[in-house]
Amino acid sequence: MKVLFLISLIFLSLNAAHTDNTLPSEEVMIVKDNSGLSDDAIRLKATVSDEKAESNVTLNTTQEDFSEISPTPIKYDWIKTKSGEWFKGKIKALYNNKLEFSSAAIGLHSFKFDTVIWIKSYQIISVNIENLATFPGVLRLKGDKLRIIQGNHEYEFARKDIISFAPDGEYESNFWSAKATLSFDIRSGNTNQYDYSAKINMLRLSSVSRFSLDYLGRITEKEGTEISNNHRLNQKYDRYLTRHFFWTPVFSELYSDTYINIRQQFTAGVGLGYTLLDSKKVRWSFSGGPAFVYTKYETVVLGNKTEDFSPAIEFSTKYQNDISSRIDLIYDYKLTYANTAAGTYKHHMLLTLENKLTSWLNLSITGVWDYILEPQETAQQIIPEQNDFQLLIGFGLKF
What we know:
Number of helices: 2
Oligomer: single chain
């Protein structure tokens, strides 16, 4: 029953993530367009507004300066960078000062938001304005001025007021992005061994929320004998309160590692979070809250319980540093305090260095450190090691 309860929590959070763009939330008011106009009619209104603005531009015919002339969005969104280049494609989301943009020419690419000086959307975009509301409409951003065009209204805000934005369309795929890193090491001859590891990160961004689903797993076999087999699935659903504050209606983890005597371990809880740093290159956030931990052991000493259910407190932090245009450093740390039977204290830490080879391919190096203060003794009276280290090197695909 405990397993079913946790799984139901995950599905509830998935359902909440799926509906948060269509249902009003308690934290963020949505200023809907009640004009009754179709999306195409609103796009036509935006095009007319664009034409009026550009009709006032006087070209210097000797210099042929066309910098103030922009393309008309037809089926695609357009963005312009500081370098003067226009890109045609689809806006995926803006989050943590990074604009995810999908284009046939460059694939799925993440632009630093401060390098984007012009946005003309074809899609209806839902924009979360700090301490105010969420506004769905056709988006126009030029310099520091933002316009959101609806059927009956046109709203203007400063660029600095934007918390996030994402498409407001009907297609669920518009909100999702994913990254998968796989590594294999196969040896034969004097030693027959294979190592497999996988790290998969899925992310759903809307104008008011962030839902992540992360998997990390490793299997190792030597001379036909399995020597490691561990799997970890983390889920976290955050809703923005302000640019810096967010709350987590549900977070959860499913974990198994028979070689440290854990057949199944499930954690779930709620929490609050705060983004301490949110600059052009560095993002650092903290979150935490009450939780519960359910553990089922592989084997136990005679007389001990094979299962344990414990209240807990969980704390996590995530630090991201864009060292250069191609190299990112990501530090992810989570600790949990529970009762003695659940290990008293445990932490899970990842330090990742990503080198972007192309817009969709990167080389990833990840160090993993798992620690448990009081591992459970097995039926053979063996106490597993407190520390478990892994080094994962592989190629990551972004899509």
